[in-house]
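Example (one chain per record):
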Amino acid sequence: MKVFVGGASGRVGQVLVSLLADEGHEVVAASRHPLTPYSDHVHPVTFDFHSDVDTMTGAVKGCETVYFVAGSRGADLLQTDAFGAVKLIEACKRAGVRRFVMLSSMFATEPERWETEKGLADLTDYNIAKFFADKWLENSGLDYTIVQAGFLTEDAPTGHIQVNPAHEGSIPLADVAAVLAEVRGLHNTYGKLIMVVSGDEPIDKALKTL
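Predicted structure:
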């Protein structure tokens, strides 16, 4: 399968590209600063979320799944985190790509939680950007999955998660990448928003029982 990863050079993106390539997928690894090729299955391309929809449409054409895992880390929230995601969604619609997987932030679509959940008050601008991107995808008509992850850590992956917890939490970024790779082929995750933090249940089992 040919898979497009927008934001391939980011922390989660790099791990996701590696996981997908190991599964045998042909991965279009798209980023402003292309990865150094390290596998016959990884095809780095230069890609800028400031580009217009027509340019993005050409980039995703022929792919079966598109991922948005980009993040400006606060430096370009409107152009990348919000409008960049919107344009990539619209590009998929034009190119006939049905499957879209979005990496987002826990409670991004629940503004009432931003002041009550520990640690979210300092992320309001980021969550506003993600709110609009997530809502746009929910109304796109695509076969989407939104993965709203807890606070990312550099800890070693555990392979275990908790799905849709009541409160914020943390999760190793490698486990988030594993969740993103796993949901791609799970039809039971289509049209769903899934929140994930570290937990006790194996990733595949937790997702298959949704």
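Caption: The chain is about 35% helix and 25% strand.
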